[in-house]
# Entry
Amino acid sequence: MDCIFCKIINGEIPSKKIYEDDMVYAFYDINPEAPVHFLVIPKKHIKSANYINNENSKYISHIFEIINKLASELNIDKAGYRVVNNCGVDGGQTVEHLHFHVLGGRELKWPPG
Ligand code: 5GP
Ligand code: ZN
# Structure
């Protein structure tokens, strides 16, 4: 499948990996928007949040367990951080493989643009 995040998971495209298990892969964003900016993705190709369903939602709960663990390991848990999912064109999604951004290490503004 011609998906850059599937290629990152299978090693065809190099990445700065933070964590991996049988369900998820976490790696630093190539274009960081904060001192800490990584992405957590399911190893199963799910196109966007629109495609989360009863069959695959176990990936989502696991992703959030891993976000929690990695935020603690990278020392952004106490100060706080933001988890972002961009969905579809208006949401600003540019890669059509479900991913959660985790941003921390600075105070983030709200609302987003
Ligand atoms: P989106 O805009 O779809 O929510 O986020 C896609 C993110 O993936 C962007 O923040 C972009 O910097 C990141 N990205 C795109 N291609 C690559 C890549 O090849 N490697 C890494 N590490 N990040 C990527
Ligand atoms: Zn994919």
Residues 4-104 form a domain with the HIT family, subunit A fold (CATH 3.30.428.10). The pocket of zinc ion (ligand 2) is lined by residues 3, 5-6, 45, 97 (CB under 6 Å). The beta strands are 17-20, 24-28, 36-42, 81-84, 100-104. Residues 82 and 111 are 12 Å apart (CA to CA).
